[in-house]
Design a protein that fits this description.
Distance between the termini: 52 Å
Strand order of the largest sheet: 3-4-5-9-8-7-6
CATH superfamily of the largest domain: Bira Bifunctional Protein, Domain 2
Helix content: 25-40%
CATH topology of the largest domain: BirA Bifunctional Protein, domain 2
Amino acid sequence: MNSLLLMLMDGQFHSGQALGLRLGISRSAVWKKIKSLEAEYGLSIQRISGRGYRLSEPLSLLDPIPLTQTANELGWNFVLHERLNSTNTYCMQLIQQADYVRPQVVMAEWQTAGRGRRGRQWVSPVIAQNLLFSLGLRLQADTRCLTGLSLVVGLAVLATLRYFGLTQAGLKWPNDVYTNNRKISGILLELTGNPTDICHLVIGIGINLNMMPHTQSSIEQPWTSLRYETGQRIDRTALAICLMQNLHHYLAQQAQMGFQGLRHEWEQHHLWQGQRCILSTPNQEISGVALGVNDEGSLRLLVNGQEQSFCAGELSLRLDHDS
């Protein structure tokens, strides 16, 4: 971690002279490092004559000690990086190595090339503001656990957000979490390998935690954050621990009961249950009423009086505002 950033992360003012003494550089060199820090990490740093420099927002860095302890208790490996191109990409590289058998958790304070569904970018422009999380699993000739998996992961994310006060959040098929018609979390599953032999699965989760909507204009779709919705700055380490525990619980439930055992719970939290929606496919748009999901996690849609089912794939669902 950048040494100057560590000095400033408390959000308090630090004089250029004091920073220079600790770093062994001149005040003018401190100013240059401040400018570089803003450009490199996407930060806003205030400068006030006679008081010095401070971060406009204090940083909540992830604490690797309790995170590693929690992962070990769950039988998982854990690694934390300051910066990665993508936690999913790095996690996939790890679990494809022959000596990785246990599930692998990867987190980063910042990622520069995060991905969402359908080839979209997952934007996280400022360091240590959101949760960037991947869980990698090796599957041995058994992909039954993939049935409805993104929906099961959504239940784990939702339980975590509700524990931290976001009681009005709900699920959007197939793998987003919304609140007040704005996206707060997305899920991306990536699979490689041979289904009849060994597969490598990575579950990627992005959650907007402390990033404030008025500070970021580079995100094209409506979004929000846990801090904005609750009015409270979020302890990212505590939330990450809660997410790991909820993921472990729901994955165990699915392994025991299959998705059909969690289907009713998912439908209870589906925001658009019973509402008229538009399903966009690569070739057409289909209008119908969302009836819920089937035992495989496919969307059940009432179209012109006939029920039809749709797998996730390259599909997206939105409300029909003309209804």
